[in-house]
Amino acid sequence: MRLRAVALGIAASVSMSFSALAGELTFWHAYSGQQDKVDFINYALEEFGKAHPDIKLNVVAAEQSSYKTKLNTAMASGNPPDVFYTLPGGFLGAFVAGNQMYSLDDALAKDGWGESFLSSALAQTTMGGHTYAVPIDIDSSVFWYNKKLFAEKGWTAPATYDQLLELCEKIKADGLVPFALGNKDSWPATFWFQYLEMRLKGSGIVSGFVAGNADATLGSEGTEAFKRIADLSAKGYFPVGFNGMSDQEANMLFLNGQAAMMLNGTWQIGASADASDDFELGFFPFPTVAEGKGDQSDILGGVAAAFGIAEKTTNKEDAVTLLRFLTSPAVMTKYVELRKTMVTVKGATTEAAAGPVLYGISNDLMGKAANLDPFYDTAMPPKGTDTYYTSLQGVLDGSVAPADAAKRLEEALKAK
């Protein structure tokens, strides 16, 4: 078997040789640009090659930001990859609406494969009663901080939003940046808006829009959420030039102790693996917001990635074989071990593989949350996501008023 990796917008090439070929598949993924992702996909594909030397994979790898554009272009041109990484919600939904996805219903019904997934995760890749992709991981977003730095400075993790703002002033007075944020690719700032909307109004807002609920609305809370984000930016709580800074660059500020906190996903555990010995990663939930109408225990969390098969794929049997292998318990437990991210396969997020921090989030936060609200940007249809990103960028740099951003976003979510 031969795996050929082609980089899209990045310099990356991997070649591994195995034995003779009987089938061939194009396989696209977005696991480039972050070492823990690269380590996982290399492991998984090498092991697949050993188990199935008769299947040839032509692999295309890209970073998340460029991948979406490349995949959308390929799908629109009628030349999709056979097996590919996709996002749940609106991103996947656009392909389903275009009859471009192969239904996995029959395959999932065989040998208990479908039963091996968490039902709440599989529901996020199921549309119109049919499942079109297998969910891989579940991410949640929390505040991260350096426990040793906080102890040294005498700072404590805040329980309320007002306490968080008070802490920011102390951090600024100490010459540090309160929050690491690199919003060049737009998605990192989305956690701020979603959590504020969840705390102020409640969970399920965007899911209501996507489901076609005529009563769905951001409400006045949408404007208030954008306003609070604008205030954070105006007060200098983010790094200078954060809208042009990558998430990786922001992470370095956090790991180097130049920024005290970071609102980010559970992948931050893997991203912190190379921190210095005096760095000890801690976490706390997004604080409660006074007079907020939402359940203050709710957690932003949902399926972060999935893999599907194109309807045009001629070699569907081998394509299903690849998906079954990628979601096998052994491979998924290795995913947890390498990426420190929770997975959708039952029993695969073991304490030994997850480590104390991730296991703590799984049990202490997600296990006690009243609701898990799926990531807005993956739940929205693509046009809604684009408006979401540009509105947030504008609010953060002061070029878009909070009320205008809320209006634009609601109109985009209501558009058919």
TrEMBL record:
<dbReference type="InterPro" id="IPR006059">
    <property type="entry name" value="SBP"/>
</dbReference>
<dbReference type="InterPro" id="IPR050490">
    <property type="entry name" value="Bact_solute-bd_prot1"/>
</dbReference>
<keyword id="KW-0732">Signal</keyword>
<keyword id="KW-0574">Periplasm</keyword>
<dbReference type="GO" id="GO:0042597">
    <property type="term" value="C:periplasmic space"/>
</dbReference>
<comment type="similarity">
    <text>Belongs to the bacterial solute-binding protein 1 family.</text>
</comment>
<dbReference type="Pfam" id="PF01547">
    <property type="entry name" value="SBP_bac_1"/>
</dbReference>
<protein>
    <submittedName>
        <fullName>ABC transporter substrate-binding protein</fullName>
    </submittedName>
</protein>
<feature type="signal peptide">
    <location>
        <begin position="1"/>
        <end position="22"/>
    </location>
</feature>
